[in-house]
Amino acid sequence: MKPQLIQSLKGYKKSDLLHDLMAGLMVAIIALPLSIALGIQSVPAEVSSRGIQFGIITAIVAGFFISALGGSKYQIGGPTAAFVVILFGYLANPDIGVLGLALAGIIAGVLLIVMGFLKVGNVMKFFPYPITIGFTTGIGVTLLVGQIKDLCGFQSSGTETIEKIVSYFENIGTFDLATFGVGVLGLLCVILLPKFSKKIPAAFVALLVCTGATLLLNNFAGAEIATIGSKYGEVKAGFFPIDFGAIGEVKFTALIVPSIVIAFLCAIESLLSATVAAGMTGTTFDANQELVGQGAANIFSSLLGGLPATGAIARTAASIENGAKSSLAGIFHAVFVLIMYFALMNVVKYIPLAVFSAILISVAINMSRFKLFAKLSHFGVRDSVILIVTCVLTIVFDLTYGVLGGMAVTFAVNAKNILKGVTVEKDESAETPTLRVKGTLFFLDANKLTDALAKEFETADNVTVNMSELERIDETAMEKLVGLNHKIKAQGKNLDLVGYNDKICKRFDHYFKVF
Question: Cβ atoms within 10 A of the Cβ of 215, count?
Answer without folding.
Answer: 14
